[in-house]
Amino acid sequence: MQHVSVLFLGAGIPKHFLRLAAHEQRVLQLLAYSNKEIAARLLVTEGTVKAYVSAMLSQLGTANRTELALWAAEHRECLLPDTWIEVEA
Length: 89
Known about the structure:
The structure is a single chain. With 89 residues, the protein is mainly alpha-helical. 46% of the residues lie in helices and 7% in strands. The protein has a single domain (21-83), classed as Winged helix-like DNA-binding domain superfamily/Winged helix DNA-binding domain (Arc Repressor Mutant, subunit A, Orthogonal Bundle). It contains four helices and two strands. Strands 1-2 form a two-stranded antiparallel ribbon.
C-alpha cells in the first residue's frame, strides 16, 4: 500500500508528518455522503469505505465522523491536489 506524507505547517495544525493514503483522502472529501454513496462513487465496497474512515479517525485523533469532516474542511489545503475529485451537486 502506498502512502503519501503531508507536512502540516501553520497555527493550530500539527507539525508532524501525517500519512494519509490518496484513497483515504478521496473518502475524506466525500464524507458528506453516506458510506454506500461514497463506495458507489469510488467503485469500492461499503466495507472498504468504513475501514478507511475508521483508520482516519484513529490517525487524526478525531472522535467521530463529524469531527473528521470538520478537520477535513479546516485542512483542505493540506490535501494533495491530485486527490481532489469533482463532485456533482
